[in-house]
Each structure stands twice: as C-alpha cells, then as structure tokens.
Amino acid sequence: MIPVYYQNEIMDKPARFPYQFFVVTFAWSWLVWLPLVLAGAGLLPLSQDLVSALSLPVASVGAFGPAAGAWYCLKTLHEKGALRRYLRGLLDFRLGWQAWLVPILVLGGSTWFAWRLPELWGEPRLAMLLPSGWVFPPYVLIMILLGGGQEELGWRGYILDPLEARLGAWLGNLVLGVIWACWHLPLFFMPGMSQTFMPFAGFVLLTIGYSWFFAWVRQAAGKRTWAGLMTHGWANAFIPLFPTVVMAAGAAQPRYWIWVSLTFAIGVTTMALRSRQQRQSGVVDRLDLHGGAGLHAR
Questions:
Q1: I need a labelling partner for 13 at 20 to 30 A (CA). Which of 36, 75, 193, 277 fits?
Q2: CA–CA separation, 66 vs 56, rounded Å?
Q3: What are the distances in angstroms from CA 197 to CA 30, 106, 191, 192?
Q4: Could you give the CA distance from residue 118 to residue 45 in angstroms, rounded to a whole number?
Q5: In whole angstroms, what separates CA 202 from the centre of its chain?
Q6: Is the dihedral of CA 211, 166, 152, 229 positive or negative?
Q7: Structural contact between residues 255 and 244, judged by C-beta atoms closer than 8 angstroms
Q8: CB burial string 174-192: b at 16+ within 10 A, e below
Q9: pLDDT single digits (tens) 215-249
Q10: Which pTM value belongs to this model?
C-alpha cells in the first residue's frame, strides 16, 4: 500500500515556473556532447576509433544534465533545505507492486513483440547485443544508475510536476516528451550511438509514449523519483536484449517503427487509465466531503 502523501509535495514550489531547469539541462548535456559531435563531423582532430570508444562514457556524463538542472533550481529557486529533502526522498523505495512489476511486463513485452513480429514476414532475427543473458541483471542496474535512469532525477523527479500544474497531465507530458526528444539531438550525430540509425520522427513518438507511461508509473508509486529511474533503466536495458534497430546506415527499420508505435499506444492507454482513476478519485472525494449524500439522492 502506497502512503497517501506524494514525495515531491515535501518540497516547496517555486514562485514562478522554473524555466532555468531547461537552460541548465541543455547547456550541461550539449556542451558535454558537443566535442564528439564536432569530431564525428571531422571538425575536431580526433580519430573515429577514439570517438567511438568515448561515445558511451561521454553520453552517460551528458545524461546527468537533467539532474544538474534540478540541482540548480532546488538550490536557487526553492527554500533552504529543498535539495536535502529531495535527495532524502530518493531513498524511498516504497513504490507498490504496480510500479515494481508493470514496467517490466509492459516494456519487456512490447520490446520483445517488436523484435519477434517481423520474422512472420521473413525478416531475419536480430541477434542479442549483450554478450550473454547472464549479464542482463547487472546491466539493468547500470542502466538505472548510469545508462539513462539518471535523467529521471530531473525529467520526472523535478520538472514534471510544474509542467503538469501549468499544462495538465496530457499536454504537460506531451510537451516534456518533445523536449526530451530534442534534448537527445546531439546523440543522432555522435558516432557509436544507436540514435545515428534511428529516424528522429519515430524517436519523438517513443519519448512521448514513454513520458505518458513513465508518468503513470510515477503516479502509481506516489510520485517517488526512484520509480522514474527504475522504469527508465528497464526500458533501456531491454533494447540490447531484444534489439529493434538495424545498426546500418539507410537500413529499413520495421522493428523500430513497430516498437515506437507500440510505445506511443501504451502511453495513450496508461494516460487514459490515469485520467479515469483521477476522475473516480474526484467523485469519491466529493462524496466523502458531503457525507455520501449523493449515493442516496433518489
């Protein structure tokens, strides 16, 4: 059972919308990634082998941009002690069974389905990119902490609530999904990154679908930030286990388009479920407020 309080409600809210979050987030990430983007374009004298070797660690460091944006805002826009309370909340793992289990089943199932379905019309199977299935458990933990999950310290862990308060749940998460996709843009030009083989339009569908789905998981977990890290980590961990991207320039990407379309549909479904749950909760709250009189209005 999830306690009734929400983690981020222990933080005071800034007086104005924290636009600074996006400035710091993009500045951190894009400045970290820029040298390898320039080297990949031949504008910096680095060998392509070195650029490819550095791409993953540099991408990981740059992925702390949203955390840097949250850190800056908590230190400058909130009352004293907000950062300490935020960090203490990261250690709250009481997510509830839905937040622990649903991401594994939904993300694993949809990625597996997109991986296997094209074999029905003759597409060759893409080999698993991990050296062995035995490395998957530690790989999940790496993805949670360093392979994308760390983004959630800012995206869902900080800026989502102000966006939903300003734009509503549907539009706020849609806007965040588009911003999230655009934040990844340098990776589409960095040698060694899988994004170089992904159509960007499909990536936007993916991040919007993820935004809606991740928001549902976070809501089910009482808005605990760890739910975002865990869900994002599982999402990224399944990608090499059930690969959906052909790592070849100009290749058709049927699995990729199935994957991103499924993810978008999952996001729509879970947001519709969240909206329904919130409407039902509002009805219950009103009935409680009036002593249940509405039940006996006839």
A1: 277
A2: 18
A3: 20, 24, 10, 10
A4: 41
A5: 15
A6: negative
A7: yes
A8: bbbbebbbebbbbbbbbbb
A9: 999 999 999 999 999 999 999 999 999 999 999 98
A10: 0.90
